[in-house]
Amino acid sequence: MFKPALLTLTTAALLLTQAAQAQTKPCEELKAEIAAKLDEKGVKDYEIAIVDSDKVGDAKVIGSCEAGAKKLTYVRK
Q1: I want to staple 73 with a disulfide (CB 3.0 to 4.6 A). Which of 25, 31, 38, 59 is the partner?
Q2: CA distance linking residue 22 with residue 14, whole number of Å
Q3: Residue 13 has pLDDT above 90, yes or no
Q4: Which superkingdom heads the taxonomic lineage of this protein's source (predicted)?
């Protein structure tokens, strides 16, 4: 027999696991999604780079991937 507290705890653990998995999107996949959105809006002459989080410097960060280990930066050419 399940106790209500155990059921609540199990449900919460499952939800947290799903949220953590959603944050680990591969960098190339995220880069392609963002590029598609920019292209759709007619943005031209830009570059999206994948860099280590500690190497961003003054670049404009437009995304995070690999659980925050890397950032996507945007530069207009």
Answers
A1: 59
A2: 13
A3: no
A4: Bacteria
